[in-house]
């Protein structure tokens, strides 16, 4: 008998094939296209199937934001996920971005079970059951749900109050012996990725516990491993375990095929295969389209609502790399919004990915949410000058010099997962990043109000909550250094700023610069 395990992961609320940069797009991804693929695979499977939603579905798209903040009703989003036909779902880290209560409300509207063994309230799983056993073709299939335990390093304390995040690897070790006794096949569905090279086992990132997929694949008794979180496209055998990670926004469906042989009243796995199936060329499933037929045009109308007008200058981004090398008016604008919202005169922000295009002459909500893509709130930190310099030194690692001495992006910020969001640019201080210098000694000329930043002096600095908690492995930041917060979502803060300042000027004071061998003195 063949058992087929199908999965999506990190769909981030992209129910429809659009980036929302304009109306009427037909992009090569979406939950709706993934369902078309899933239906076809289920229909033609040579045996029973099991379909898993592997986390990060409640946040990410304008539709998800609309359902959480603009017209709060989780069913506006969850109806589409119910239409897919999942057998089980997993909790992702971004499920907490709008708070645990919002997550609980959303889970209550789903018709499939949520599995999560390592997020506890007290001593019990906080969301759903730790595992579930499904019967497929007479075989018992156990699915253990796990979520990256690194969430407290990113999420605001209010959003995870009362929750305990237990190490995913230790949780798996606890449950696997029991599941092996209860089931013929054991599947781990883990919203997390891989911390090591899949062939050599060498670390590919700091071993913080954020991603433990490689170590999970080494545990005895695991037949299949469904992963996510890193937005990678992976399929194959890792330490003999059939493994998938199906990309981002529904661009792929993970497919694991296990061949089972019956031995008395039990079954054992005799062969394994894993692959990804692209969704881009498919037609969106009508059931998913119908689930959002009412809300989708409302979201588009909300996105088109005008907010402000740039009457002088240009905030459009035509080259995202150059926008990180030399200060761009859009970056300065975001930093000034942060400072205005928190009453500081130093702020840092990132250009989160290479898709942002800044602002044109007419600014709409669509421009805001497609540029500032994360539901960040703001935190004010009391940092020493040494802390501030250390943060800038870490940001400077984003750049390297190529063989010609020209600036390039350091590979670890591109692979295995793009991490442009971990390079911050600051306003309110003057500094130079000299990439010609060794790592750790690249920040030169660091000044505040014309005076050198003193290592032992203290400064109030605004950053987003993710960074303030040390997100991105910024060890010099942590929650203990936060002195106050603004709990409004940055999307809302930007929109309010634009409404209050309809006559904007695109400005840049060039308070920072990045130097390579070809950049001059």
From TrEMBL:
<dbReference type="InterPro" id="IPR008334">
    <property type="entry name" value="5'-Nucleotdase_C"/>
</dbReference>
<feature type="domain" description="5'-Nucleotidase C-terminal">
    <location>
        <begin position="321"/>
        <end position="478"/>
    </location>
</feature>
<feature type="domain" description="Calcineurin-like phosphoesterase">
    <location>
        <begin position="4"/>
        <end position="232"/>
    </location>
</feature>
<dbReference type="InterPro" id="IPR006146">
    <property type="entry name" value="5'-Nucleotdase_CS"/>
</dbReference>
<dbReference type="InterPro" id="IPR029052">
    <property type="entry name" value="Metallo-depent_PP-like"/>
</dbReference>
<dbReference type="Pfam" id="PF00149">
    <property type="entry name" value="Metallophos"/>
</dbReference>
<dbReference type="InterPro" id="IPR006179">
    <property type="entry name" value="5_nucleotidase/apyrase"/>
</dbReference>
<keyword id="KW-0378">Hydrolase</keyword>
<keyword id="KW-0511">Multifunctional enzyme</keyword>
<dbReference type="InterPro" id="IPR036907">
    <property type="entry name" value="5'-Nucleotdase_C_sf"/>
</dbReference>
<keyword id="KW-0732">Signal</keyword>
<keyword id="KW-0479">Metal-binding</keyword>
<keyword id="KW-0547">Nucleotide-binding</keyword>
<protein>
    <submittedName>
        <fullName>Bifunctional metallophosphatase/5'-nucleotidase</fullName>
    </submittedName>
</protein>
<comment type="similarity">
    <text>Belongs to the 5'-nucleotidase family.</text>
</comment>
<dbReference type="InterPro" id="IPR004843">
    <property type="entry name" value="Calcineurin-like_PHP"/>
</dbReference>
<dbReference type="Pfam" id="PF02872">
    <property type="entry name" value="5_nucleotid_C"/>
</dbReference>
<dbReference type="InterPro" id="IPR041827">
    <property type="entry name" value="CpdB_N"/>
</dbReference>
């Amino acid at each position: 008998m063949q058992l087929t395990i199908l999965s999506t992961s990190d769909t981030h609320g992209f129910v429809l094939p659009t980036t929302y940069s304009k109306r009427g797009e037909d992009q090569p991804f979406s939950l709706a296209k993934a369902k078309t693929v899933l239906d076809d695979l289920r229909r033609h499977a040579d045996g029973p199937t099991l379909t898993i939603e592997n986390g990060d579905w409640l946040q990410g798209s304008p539709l998800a934001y609309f359902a959480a903040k603009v017209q709060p009703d989780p069913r506006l989003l969850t109806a589409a996920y119910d239409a897919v036909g999942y057998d089980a779902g997993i909790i992702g880290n971004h499920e907490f971005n709008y708070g645990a209560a919002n997550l609980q409300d959303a889970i209550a509207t789903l018709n499939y079970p949520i599995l999560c063994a390592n997020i506890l309230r007290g001593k019990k799983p906080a969301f759903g059951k730790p595992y579930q056993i499904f019967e497929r073709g007479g075989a018992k299939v156990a699915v253990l749900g796990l979520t990256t335990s690194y969430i407290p390093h990113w999420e605001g304390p209010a959003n995870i109050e009362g929750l305990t995040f237990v190490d995913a690897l230790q949780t798996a070790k606890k449950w696997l012996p029991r599941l092996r006794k209860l089931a013929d096949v054991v599947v781990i569905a883990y919203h997390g990725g891989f911390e090591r090279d899949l062939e050599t086992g060498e670390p590919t990132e700091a071993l913080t516990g954020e991603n433990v997929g490689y170590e999970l694949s080494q545990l005895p008794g695991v037949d299949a491993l469904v992963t996510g979180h890193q937005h990678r496209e992976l399929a194959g055998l890792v330490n003999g375990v059939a493994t998938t990670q199906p990309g981002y926004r529904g661009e792929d469906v993970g497919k694991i095929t296990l061949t089972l042989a019956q031995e008395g009243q039990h079954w054992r796995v005799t062969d394994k295969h894993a692959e990804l199936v692209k969704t881009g060329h498919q037609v969106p499933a009508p059931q998913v389209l119908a689930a959002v037929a009412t809300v989708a045009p409302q979201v588009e109308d909300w996105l088109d609502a005008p907010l402000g007008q740039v009457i002088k200058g240009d905030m459009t981004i035509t080259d995202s790399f150059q926008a990180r090398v030399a200060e761009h008016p859009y970056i300065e604008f975001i930093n000034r919004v942060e400072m205005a919202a928190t009453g500081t005169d130093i702020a840092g922000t990132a250009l989160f990915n290479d898709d942002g295009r800044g602002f044109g002459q007419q600014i709409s909500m669509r421009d805001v949410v497609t540029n500032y893509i994360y539901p960040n709130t703001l935190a004010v930190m009391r940092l020493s000058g040494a802390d501030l310099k250390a943060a800038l030194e870490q940001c400077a690692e984003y750049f390297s010099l190529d063989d010609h001495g020209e600036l390039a992006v350091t590979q670890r910020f591109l692979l295995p997962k793009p991490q442009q969001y971990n390079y911050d640019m600051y306003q309110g201080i003057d500094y130079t990043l000299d990439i010609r210098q060794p790592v750790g000694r690249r920040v030169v000329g660091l000044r505040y109000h014309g005076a050198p930043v003193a290592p032992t002096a203290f400064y109030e600095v605004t950053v987003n909550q993710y960074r303030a908690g040390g997100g991105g492995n910024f060890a010099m930041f942590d929650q203990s250094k936060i002195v106050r917060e603004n709990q409004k979502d940055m999307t809302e803060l930007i929109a309010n700023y634009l409404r209050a300042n309809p006559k904007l000027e695109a400005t840049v004071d060039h308070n920072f610069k990045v130097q390579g061998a070809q950049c001059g003195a």
